[in-house]
Specification:
The chain has 369 residues and is α+β, with helices and mostly antiparallel strands. The chain has one domain. The chain contains 13 helices and eleven strands. The strands form three sheets. Strands 3, 4, 5, 6, 9, 10 and 11 form a seven-stranded mixed β-sheet that branches. It has a two-stranded antiparallel ribbon with strand order 1-2. Strands 7-8 form a two-stranded antiparallel sheet. Helix 4 crosses helix 8. The chain is globular.
């Protein structure tokens, strides 16, 4: 593709190419290459954050550029609105996305999210952002087909801006303080909106205490996406039992109260619940019931060296000797996706979630422009 503003150089391309080959150095240093050289990139090209671009980004919020929104881990560097805007420019955000990025970062800086621990864990996990409310529709986020995948600018760049802030301001770089053994693709960006088109459905933000009509972000410590395919269940009870089988595999099938999870219900599975008269409350209660197992079957050494300890059994088993897979509130249910296929998604959570008193998903109401 030819840049019309530089068409005068077209006739000299061969000359420039030969000069580069002879010298071994770029003929013109591109700003994108400068960003790579200075370690500002997540591995993909970034948009150069010129003064004009940053000023345009700051127009997306009424907050002062020098306002400190928190201390970015791991280095606990003061993060200003302006520094956030710089990284939002590099990520490819539009100005109207900036309030979502700011709220997500403020949520991450809450002690109970344990962002520092999530960053430096050996595990796969990284932050996942779920957006609710009018802002998701206003900025054109995807909550429908391929909501967890590529193709939507808002979804992709909001999550990427968040990660670039942690890298460039906080100092969280792979193979330095980010000690993940393998990581996962969601550490580039992991952000989507919940499908709120059904008036009978209670969105996640409202279920977590946000007033109706307000926008919010929920941050979750996500490992990655596991597909759930059930094309045979036809009743809510059957589907709950089927979902529970796969949900028990989060972290490991013999571990209970070890991590959290997000269940992303796609439309055709949700229709099964809806046809049975089940809304959020009934779905959550049905899953809780289906996710109980005899604690004694999970004890260490009961046919497998991995399992819960006697102390965990004593602490978490109920009067009938049953244990829940997740801590109370540790399974988040959201709606998203396109029609067809009778498939949903399970997103397992960081093993740090076993310390439920210290590590929890965080929901924060958006500060609107």
């Amino acid at each position: 593709m030819t840049d019309p503003d530089r068409s005068e150089h077209v006739g000299h391309l061969d000359e420039h190419r030969d000069q580069v080959r002879r010298s071994g150095e770029p003929y013109l240093v591109h700003p994108i290459e400068v960003a790579y050289d200075r370690g500002w990139s997540d591995g993909l090209p970034v948009t150069p954050p010129t003064d004009l671009r940053v000023a345009r980004m700051l127009a997306g919020t009424a907050r002062k550029p020098d306002e400190v929104i928190g201390l970015a881990p791991p280095n606990l560097t003061p993060l200003t609105v302006e520094k956030t805007a710089i990284n939002a420019v590099m990520a490819g955000c539009r100005p109207e996305y900036l309030p979502v990025v700011l709220s997500a970062l403020e949520a991450a800086f809450q002690p109970e999210f344990a962002m520092h621990g999530l960053l430096c864990t050996l595990a796969f996990s990284g932050p996942m952002i779920i957006v609710n409310g009018p802002v998701a529709r206003r900025i054109g986020m995807n909550s429908q087909g391929n909501a967890l995948g590529q193709g939507n600018r808002a979804n992709a760049t909001i999550g990427r801006a968040f990660q670039l802030v942690i890298r460039n301001v906080g100092g969280g770089r792979p193979q330095e303080i980010d000690r993940a053994v393998l990581g996962q693709p969601g550490k580039y960006t992991f952000c989507f909106a919940e499908d709120e088109r059904d008036d009978d459905w209670t969105p996640l933000a409202q279920a977590r205490g946000v007033p109706e009509g307000r926008s919010a972000v929920t941050l979750f410590h996500a490992d990655g996406v596991t597909g759930f395919v059930d094309q045979k269940s036809r009743t809510p009870d059957e589907l709950c039992q089927s979902l529970a089988m796969q949900l028990w595999s989060v972290n490991h099938p013999r571990l209970a109260r070890w991590g959290n999870a997000v269940l992303v219900l796609a439309p055709n599975h949700y229709e099964i619940f809806q046809a049975g008269g089940w809304g959020r409350a009934e779905i959550e209660a049905g899953l809780l019931k289906a996710l109980k197992r005899p604690a004694r079957d999970l004890l260490e050494g009961a046919g497998h060296p991995l399992g819960i300890t006697p102390a965990q059994m004593e602490a978490f088993a109920d009067a009938d000797g049953m244990i829940d897979k997740f801590h109370p509130g540790g399974l988040l249910v959201v709606r998203a996706g396109g029609p067809g296929g009778l498939m949903s998604a399970i997103i397992g959570g960081w093993t740090g979630g076993r310390n439920a008193a210290e590590v929890r998903p965080v929901t924060r109401m958006l500060e609107e422009v």
